[in-house]
Amino acid sequence: MRSTACFGAILVLVVLVPGAPGQNWDDVPLVSHQTFQAVNPNGSSAYTGGFPVRLRGVLLNNHEDWLDPTPAYDPEYHPWQMGGEWEVFVQTADPNDFGGTACWMGQNYGNVPWHADPTFSYTDPEWLAELARVNHDPNTGILLRRGDLIEIRGRGGLPYAGKMNVNEQHSNDPALDFELILLQQGYGLPTPAPVILSDLKDPNNAFIWDWTRQTGGERYQATLIEVQNVHLVSSAGWGPNVQMTVMDNTGRTLPMRLGRNPAFQQVPAPTGEFDVVGILNQVSSSGIGGYYLLVLSPVDFTPPLPFYGDANCDGEITFADIDYFLVALAGQATWEQLYPDCPWLSADMNRDGEVTFADIDGFVATLGGQGP
Question: Measuring CA to CA, which residue among 127, 128, 89 is closest to residue 280?
Fold first, then answer.
């Protein structure tokens, strides 16, 4: 969840160029992510281009992967209680650009102190309509998914905790709506940048601060990275929507947030050294430091974690797992020869350390929606 303490400390309004749902977007120039995310030496936003704004890039997460959008309208004033929240990250696909941008939306804008008025919030039906609007391409109605190439069309935004967000400036006024436009379905995710913790932290375990964004966390902010050669400091609490910490062999550490994917409930925490792919996000009251890795699925770990029943290691249990499951029943050696990148025990539905016909009932029950 968002830190309400740091939120109020650094929130700065950006002058809004008035927009409306009928905005002629052909007249709005495209802005690079590196321009939109530029910062000053003190960590504050250096973007001066105003709004409306257009940015393009690849959608890095499905909307359900991250913040909890469950409607929770608040008819009274309770400071900073946002109710449902929604956020996606978009990384540039332009080889002459770098970085990415977050788009955020909340339900109870009336609970920000400068409003303190529930008329600025979305009721539950209004919030569900907003979610449906931003999750679909407005021209085709296609549900937007990670890996799609999209265009962000923003009428407003605010700097938050070290990065510039496209958002509704905490108002339910339709004139501040943003849209995500589908340019190419299934374009493909960017290749994660390989990173070791010394790329992000100095020998004293402090985040490297480079306001020019050529090195350190600012370089990789809101993009996919692969953090290499780390291990968990502790596996306690492992599961969806929790914060863990990873460490390398020099003692450098990095917070790691697991997303809302229920698959994290079905996998054990990794043991030993691993690599892990995620989105580098930033939440800092000063705008300097505060980076953490957002990991969206168990399949983002290498070596892969055994997701019980997910026999083909694609992050879900479906009929596509049947062939893999049957091969697993034939024996571990055959499995390892055919599928070296997917652990044999991913087909171990009853979690007894072996794959036998005793696992079939749990597999069939899961396919039928009854759970393992």
Answer: 89
Could you report the per-residue pLDDT of 43-77, keeping only the tens digit for each? Answer: 999 999 999 999 999 999 999 999 999 999 999 99
Q: Within this chain, do residues 338 and 292 fall inside the same structural domain, yes or no?
A: no
Same domain, 77 and 199: no
Task: Give residue-wise pLDDT tens across range 1-35.
Answer: 333 333 333 333 333 333 345 789 999 999 999 99
DSSP state of 152: E
My answer on whether 29 and 122 are in the same domain is yes
| C-alpha 171, offset from chain centre | 23
Q: Are residues 162 and 99 in the same domain?
A: yes
Which pLDDT tens digit goes with each residue over 202-230? 999 999 999 999 999 999 999 999 999 99
- Helix or strand (DSSP H, E) at 4: helix 4-10
| Distances in whole angstroms, Cα of residue 154 to Cα of each of 168, 177, 289, 336 | 8, 7, 26, 48
State residue 295 phi and psi, 5-degree precision: -105, 130
Whether 62 is in a domain gets the answer yes
Residue 325, domain extent: 319-367
> Does residue 307 sit within a domain?
no
* Phi, psi (degrees; rounded to nearest 5) at 104: -130, 150
